[in-house]
C-alpha cells in the first residue's frame, strides 16, 4: 500500500513531543501536551463532538477487519439511553492469524517510527476529545467534565507516557555494535553485532467499564510501541471509547503504510466470555487487564503463554491521626469520596480514626465529631443538585446501587446516601456517598471493611491508636491490596510509621492533602498509578517494568 | 554494629568500575575488569587457591546463620574424590523471617551503596578466583581452565553486569521531585514527591550443577543490588562455589555495617526437595532458577507469589548451508561440540545439513562428507589425551554417560565417543562427543532430535533444502526452545531467511563463526545469554527486564 504520510514525516512532527515526554518521565515534573479545558479545543468542538457521538448511535460501527462473523453490542448509557451501536464480532481463528501476519513489517519499522505513529494516533484522538468525552460519559457514567478530562487529555497523557517508556527501553541497546577482544600478541577477536527489539506477539487489551481509555491506553500504547499488534476487547458496557480508538489507530496505520490490522477490535456477544477464549490463544503473548480480582487471578493463573499485567480490586485506606488544617482535610476528603460516586479504583474506602479522637488546629475532635464533620462536608459539597450531578456522575451498574442500599446494614450510618435527579437525563441513577461507622475491634465489622465495597460507600473505622491504625493499614495492604493510601498527621513519628508501612507493603502514599490535589488522582509523567507490589495490581502505570518485557532483544553476531 | 568500612568508602573505591560497566552495557563493547589468565592473579595464587580448597575438604563449612538445625552435604567431585564438606541446613521458619527482618536497612541504604557493596563482594571473590576455580572444577566437572575462566572472571563479569543493570534501573526515577501544575489565575498546585525503590522481599537463587557461579551470579547480584535479601539454594552436587560466595558476601556485608543475613545459604538433605518448600514460602518474592524444564515449569506454575526467572532446556541448532571457509567452520564446530563435553546449555545439538550437500570454498561437499569431515575435525581436536582432558572435563553426572551410550541406538554413528583417561584423576569419566546421523524426514528420528539430549551427543540431521532447514529451525525454537542458534551460509537470501526465523521465534543467532568465537560462548556486557522469548528461558542474561521487576517504586507526595 502507498503511504499517504511517511514515517519520516511523522517522526519530524512528533519527535519534540516524544523528547519532552522522555525528559518528563525522568524529572517527574508537571507537563501535558493535551489541554484540560474543553474550550481549548475550539469554538465548535463541543457541538461537533456531541454531533459526532450522536451520529454513531443506532448504527453499525464499521471497521473492515478480517474474520468478522457477526455483529454485537448492547451498550446502554448509565444516563439512560441505549446507544444502539453494533460492532464487529470476530472469528478468532481468522482474526488472530491476520494480526500475527501484520507483525513483521511493524517490527522492522523500528522503535522511533513506531513511537511516531503512536503519537500521531494520540494526536488524532486528542483532536476528537469532545467526541470521546461523550463516548466515555455514556458508557462509564462519569459526569461530562470528568469524562472529558480523565477520558480525554489525562488518558492521552497516560498513553503518551507509555510510548515514551517503551521507546526509551527499546533504544537502550544500540542497533549495532562492534566488539573487539584483545588476544595478547595475536589478532583480536572481532565481531559485529546487531540488536533488534522484537515484539512478543499479539497483545490483548481487556478494557474496563469505568475508565475505558484511561486504564486502556497505557497497555495499548505500550504494546503497540514495542511492536506487538493489539487486539482490543472492551468491557461489554464500555465499547465505544475503545472502538473509536481502534478506528483512529487503523486509519493512522494505513495512512502511514502499515497494515491496519495491527490494531483490531473484538466485541463479545452476551454471555460469550470472549476474553477467556482470547486470553489463552497461542498468538496472544501480552495481556493488559483492569477489573475484578477474580478474573485477574484467573488470567494470571491460566494465560501462562502471555505476560499478564493486571489491575484488580483493593481496599484503599486513609489514616486520620491529626491535622493542622481540619477544614482543608475535611473538604479534601469530601471531594475524594464524592468524585464519580466513589467508583474509582483509587477512591478511599476505609478512614481509620482513633476512637479517642484527633488533634487539629480547631482543637481536639472526638471520633464521632470527625465523622459527623466529614459527613457535613460531603453534604455541603453535594448540597446543590447541579454541583452534585457535575461531581457524582451516574452509577455505572446496578450492583453499585445495591451496595449503597446494603451499606446501612453494616453499621451505624453517619451519612445517608440521597438520590439526586439529573435535569438532563432523568433516567440516570445519581447517588451521594454513604459513610458507615465501624468498630475496628469487632470481627464482623472487619469482614465488611476488609472487603472492597466498590462505589460511594466508605467506612469510618474506629481504631485504638495511631499504632493500631498503622497495623490495620499494613494488614489491609498486604492482604487486600491498595491502589492508594492517604494519611493526615502532624506527628513526625506517626508520619514515619506510616511511610515505613507503605515502603514495606508497597503502597503509594499521599500525605496531608488539604488543597486541590486528591488522593484518588494521579498525573501521568509524574505519579505512579498503583505500585505493582501489593495485591491490588501486579504493575504500575507506568514504569520501566511495565514495558521492558513486552519485547525481547534478538542479537545477531558475525565475524567482522 | 560498627562498620569497618563505610559505604562512602566503598562507593569511592568502586564507582569508576560501576561507571565503566554502565557505559559498556550501552555500548556493548568488549570490557572486563576480571583477568582471564590464571597468571594474572600472582605467582602463588594457583598454589594458594588449591591449598585453600583442600583446607575446606572434610570439614564443616561454618556460616553462623540463624536457624541452622542440622548439617548436610554429599558432594563428590566428578573427578572422583568426595569433598566431604557439610553445610548448614536451615529451619526455614527461623531463617526466612530473619532474612526478611534484615531488609529495611538494606533498602534504606539506597541503590548506590548497594551497588558498591555488591562490587566489593565481587572484588573479594575475584581475588580468590583460584580457590573458586577448584571449587567449580570439582563440582561441575569442568576442566581447570574452563572452571577458572567461566567460573571465575566470566561469572564475576555477569554478576557485575547485573549490578549495573540493577543500579541503572533504580536511579532512573529521581529520589525527589517538585511538581507544580499551573491553575490559570489561581496559585499553582504544588507537591513535593519522593520516590523510593523498594525490594520485593526475599529472593531465592536455585543453583545448577554445571555453572554454579556463572548461572547463579546474575540473579544473586540483580536481587541483592535491588534490595532483596538473597537465599542461595545450590544444586546438591555443586554447593561449594555458592557456599564460598555466600561466605564472602556475608563478610563484606558485616564489615560494611549491614546484617550478614542479607545473604544466606540453604543446603538440603538427600531427597528433601527443599527448593519446592522454599519456592512457595510467602517471604520469597523473587526466584532465579537454572535447570530442568520440568522443575522450571513447576516453579512458574506454583510459585505465584514470586517473580520467577527460569533458564530451562532447549534444542540448540546450527544450520549448515554453505561456507567460504570450510576448514574454519569445521574446526569452530568441533570446538563447540567438545567444550565441557557438550554439557553447556548453549552447546549445539542439531546440525541441519541439506541431504544434497553444501557449497564450500573447497568445492561441493555431500552430506556424508560434511558429517565425516566434522567427525574428523573433532577426532583431530581431541586426538591428544592431554588436550582432550583440557577441553572436555569430566561428565557431570551418570545420566550424561547413559545418554552417550544410548546414542548409537538412535541412528548411524558418524563419530563414536571414546573414553579418555585423566592422568591426575583416574576416577574421572571423560568422554569425547558422539555424532549420530539422522534423517530429518523420519518421524522416529524427529522424536529423538527434537528432545534435548544434554551432553556430548549431536545429531547431523539431513534436510531436504535450506528452506526445509529453516522450517525445522523455526519449529525447534518455537516448540523446544533454544539458547543459541548458529548458521553457516554464503547466500544472502538464506541468511535473510534464517535471520527472519530468529527474529520471529526469538533466538540469539551466531552467523558464520570460523575463528576463535564460538556459538556456545557469550560475553557479559555485550552478548545476551538466551532471549527470554522462546521456551528455553523466560529471561535473558542480562537486560533491563531481568532487573526492572525485582523492585517497585513507592511514591510519597506531600503538599509543598
Would you identify the CATH H-level superfamily of the largest domain in chain A? Aldehyde Dehydrogenase, Chain A, domain 1
Low-confidence stretches of chain A: none
Shape of chain A: globular
Using a beta-carbon cutoff below 8 angstroms, give the protein chain pair with the largest interface and the number of residues from each chain: A-B, 66 and 66 residues
- CATH secondary-structure class of the largest domain in chain A: Alpha Beta
CATH architecture identity of the largest domain in chain A: 3-Layer(aba) Sandwich
Gyration radius of chain A, in Å: 25 Å
Query: How many structural units, i.e. domains of chain A?
Result: 2
Q: How do the strands of the widest beta sheet of chain A line up side by side? A: 12-15-16-11-10-17-18
SSE-based structural type of chain A = alpha/beta
Discrete helix count of chain A? 19
Strand share of the residues of chain A? 15-25%
At CATH level 3, the topology of the largest domain in chain A is: Aldehyde Dehydrogenase, Chain A, domain 1
The rounded distance between the terminal residues' Cα atoms of chain A is 37 Å
Question: Mind summarizing the main beta sheet of chain A?
Answer: 7 strands, mixed
Q: Let me know the number of strands of chain A.
A: 19
Q: Please, could you describe this protein's structure?
A:
2 copies of one chain form a homodimer. Chain A is α/β, with parallel strands linked by helices. Chain A has 2 domains: 288 residues, Aldehyde Dehydrogenase, Chain A, domain 1 (3-Layer(aba) Sandwich); 195 residues, 3-Layer(aba) Sandwich (Aldehyde Dehydrogenase, Chain A, domain 2), CATH 3.40.309. Chain A contains 19 helices and 19 strands. A 7-stranded mixed sheet of chain A has the order 12-15-16-11-10-17-18, with helices on both faces. The mean pLDDT of chain A is 97. Chains A and B meet through strand 3, strand 4, helix 18, strand 18 and helix 19 of A and strand 3, strand 4, helix 18, strand 20 and helix 19 of B. Chains A, B: InterPro entries: Ald_DH/histidinol_DH, Ald_DH_C, Ald_DH_N, Aldehyde_DH_dom, PaaN_2, Proline_metab_enzyme. Chains A, B: It holds the Pfam family Aldedh.
